[in-house]
Amino acid sequence: MPNIRPAKSEDIQKIAEIESLCFPESEAASLKSFTERFQVFPECFFVLEVNGEIAGHINGCRYHKAELPDELFENANLHNPNGMYQTVFGLAVAPSHQRKGYASILTKHLIEVCKQRNLTGMVLTCKEHLIPFYQNHGFTSQGQSDSSHGGALWYDMTIEF
């Protein structure tokens, strides 16, 4: 049975490893980036464990608008602890644990955390083939994103509570 918990500093190495397995190098956050982000907004990092092993993660900062500008990926200090929107920088499940519903479990967990924190909503960018996944979790597509993160084509997704 999977277990979700807040990430700890000692989890960052494994989080970065999973990220590197799931995203192209141009899109994956580095260990350095994860470390910097975790120092600024540790309350926005969650891991999913299976039999005591980290199998996936979800993370992002809080922001004052329903948008996810590329600058947020680069500068952890743009995190606004009073921001009413939770961003999602990354959702990743190790390849050996994929197709088991763990990405959905992580997404639902973060949605519930945001509701408990009385946030207005969440915002993320995703690739076109993932739009239906997020729509199934209540997100609405806002169309093609202005993001050029990693040189990829992204779509803005939002959910309001």
UniProtKB/TrEMBL annotation:
Keywords carried by this UniProt record: Acyltransferase, Transferase
CDD domains, per the entry: NAT_SF
Molecular function per GO: N-acetyltransferase activity
Domain named N-acetyltransferase: residues: 2-160
PROSITE patterns recorded: GNAT (PS51186)
Pfam families in the record: Acetyltransf_1 (PF00583)
Entry protein name: N-acetyltransferase GCN5
